Amino acid sequence: MYLLLKGHDYEYEIKMLLNLFYHGEDYDIVEDIPSQGVTIETVVCEDYFKAAYYENGKIIETSSLDKEYIKDLPKEPLERRKQSKILLKRLLYNEASKVTGIKQPWGILTGIRPTKIVFDLIDRYGDDEDRVRYCLENHYKISPSKVNLMMEIVRSEMKILSTNKDDEINIYLGIPFCPTRCLYCSFTSYPIDKWMSRVMDYLHALEKEMEYVSKELLASKKVKTIYVGGGTPTSLNAEQLERFMIMIDKHFDIESLEEFTVEAGRPDTINDAKLEVLKKYGVTRISINPQTMNDKTLEIIGRRHTVEDIYSAFSMARTAGFDNINMDLIIGLPGETFSDVKQTMEQIKKLNPESVTVHTMAVKRASRLRESINEYDLISDKTIRDMIDMVYHECKLVELNPYYMYRQKNMVGNYENVGYCSTGMECIYNVEIMEEAQSIIALGAGSVSKIVFRDENRIERIENVKNVEQYIERIDEMIDRKRKFFG
C-alpha cells in the first residue's frame, strides 16, 4: 500500500489510524499516484481537506471538507494543528470504514488515555453532557457503548481528582524481578533465580535514589500515594522484602499516605511471611493477579502456578488482614474461548475481591508472544467484543463498577483495559497516572517520573535506565538527572 501526503506532516497519525484497519501493513510514501496497488491520499489545504482511496491509479472512494466547513478552525497554531489532525483523521476513518466495512469501537482514537478527551470537552462545554456525547460520537466516531463507558469512568474519576492539592505528589518504586517472564510481558523484568546475587546491590542503589528524593524533593510536598510495581515485588524473599519495606518506612511518611499499594502479582511468590511483612509496614492495597483461572492457559503463558495456588494466595491475604485486594485478568489469551473467560469470572466472583482490572490482550513489541506470534491463534474481534461485554455485566452484578481505563497499541480488536472496583475502593494512583493530573516521582530501573505543570498544561518526563546492572552502576547519574531537572 502507498501513502500520498499533501500539505501536512501527519504521517505517524495517518499510519496509526490505518493500522486499525490494516494491522501490520507496510506503507511506502509516494509523491504521485502509482498505476498499480492501493494508494491512500490525504490532503490539508487552506481551502479544503481530502481523503481518497485509489486502486491501480483509479479513484474508488473520496471525501472532502470545503472552505466553508473548515473556516472555523482555531487561528492559534498549536490548537489549529490539533483540530486539523482530528478533521483529517475523521475523513480518513470514513473512507477506510467504507472500503473495509469495519467500524472501530474507539473511532479515530489511537491514544492510550481516551478519558482525557472527555475532560477537555467538559472544560469547553461545562455540564452540557449531550453536547459532550455528540462530539465523542460524531467528531471522534466513538461507539455509543464506549461513550457510555467513558462518561461512567469520568464521573468516578472526578471524585478523586477534585480533591487533588498542589502540594501533593505520588511515588512509584520499581522492583524489576519476576519468577519467570510471561508470554505477553514487555515490562522491565529479570528472572529472580538468575539475579538473586544482585538483589541487595539493586536495593542499595534504590535506597540511594530514595534518600535523594526524600531529602531534596519532598521538603514542601506531601506524599499522597506509594505504588510498588515491577516485575513482581514479592519475587524478593521475605528478608529482602523486609529490607525494602524498612527503606520505604525510613525515607517516606507512611502514616500520612492515603494509599499504599504493592503488586503481589504472581500467586507463586506469595506466602504468609511476605504478607506479614507487607502488613507490618502499612501496605493497604495489594494485587494478586491470576490473569486467567484456567490451568492450561497458565501453562501456555509461562506461569509456574495453578488455579489452586491462586485460591491459596488469596486466602492467605485475607487471613493476613488485607481488605483491599485487586485481581488482574487478561481476556483474549491464546487458546481461550468465551466459555473459558466466563468460567474465570465465575471463580473470581466467588473470591470477591475489592477490585478487578480487566486487560484486553495486547501483542507488545518486546514480548515473547510477538517473537513467536505465528505459533498462536489470536481471537476474533467479535469474540473479544462479546468477552468484554460479558465481563462488564458480570462485574456489575457484584457491584464492581468501572473507575479508570487506558488503551495500548496492538490490542486485540482495538479495545481497552478497564479497572472495576466496589464503592470507595478506587485505586487513587491508577487514576492519577492515567489522567496525569499530579506529579509522580518514579524510582528504580526502567521507571519514568512525570512532572505535571498544571498551570502550563505541560508534562516533563525523567527516565531511568531499564537495565538493572546499568541502574546499579549508574545510580549517581540517575539521581543527577532528577537534580538537574529540579535545580
Concise account of the structure shown:
The chain is of the alpha/beta class and 487 residues long.
Protein architecture, described:
- Helix 8 (199-217) packs parallel to helix 9.
- Strand 10 (259-265), helix 10 and strand 11 (285-288) form a beta-alpha-beta unit.
- The termini are far apart.
- Strands 14-15-13-12-11-10-9-6-16 form a nine-stranded mixed sheet, with helices on both faces.
- The chain has 18 helices and 18 strands.
- It is 42% helix and 21% strand.
- It has 487 residues and is an alpha/beta fold.
- It is globular and about 70 Å long.
- Mean pLDDT is 92; it is low at 366-373.
Give the topology.
Blueprint: E1 2-6, H1 11-19, E2 28-30, E3 38-44, E4 49-55, E5 58-65, H2 67-70, H3 77-100, H4 115-125, H5 129-139, H6 144-161, E6 168-175, E7 177-178, E8 190-191, H7 192-195, H8 199-217, E9 222-230, H9 238-251, E10 259-265, H10 272-280, E11 285-288, H11 295-300, H12 307-319, E12 325-331, H13 338-351, E13 355-360, H14 368-371, H15 381-397, E14 401-406, E15 417-421, H16 428-435, E16 440-443, E17 448-453, E18 458-463, H17 468-473, H18 475-486
Parallel strand pairs: 1-2, 1-3, 6-9, 6-16, 7-8, 9-10, 10-11, 11-12, 12-13
Antiparallel strand pairs: 3-4, 4-5, 13-15, 14-15, 17-18
Could you tell me the mean pLDDT? Answer: 92
Instruction: State the helix count.
Output: 18
In what range is the share of β-strand residues?
Answer: 15-25%
Shape: globular
The biggest beta sheet reads: 9 strands, mixed
Give the end-to-end Cα distance, rounded to a whole number of Å.
49 Å
Total number of strands: 18
Spatial order of strands in the largest sheet? 14-15-13-12-11-10-9-6-16
Using only C-alpha atoms, the radius of gyration works out to 24 Å
Structural class by secondary-structure content? alpha/beta
Which percent bin holds the helix content?
A: 40-55%
Name the poorly predicted regions: 366-373
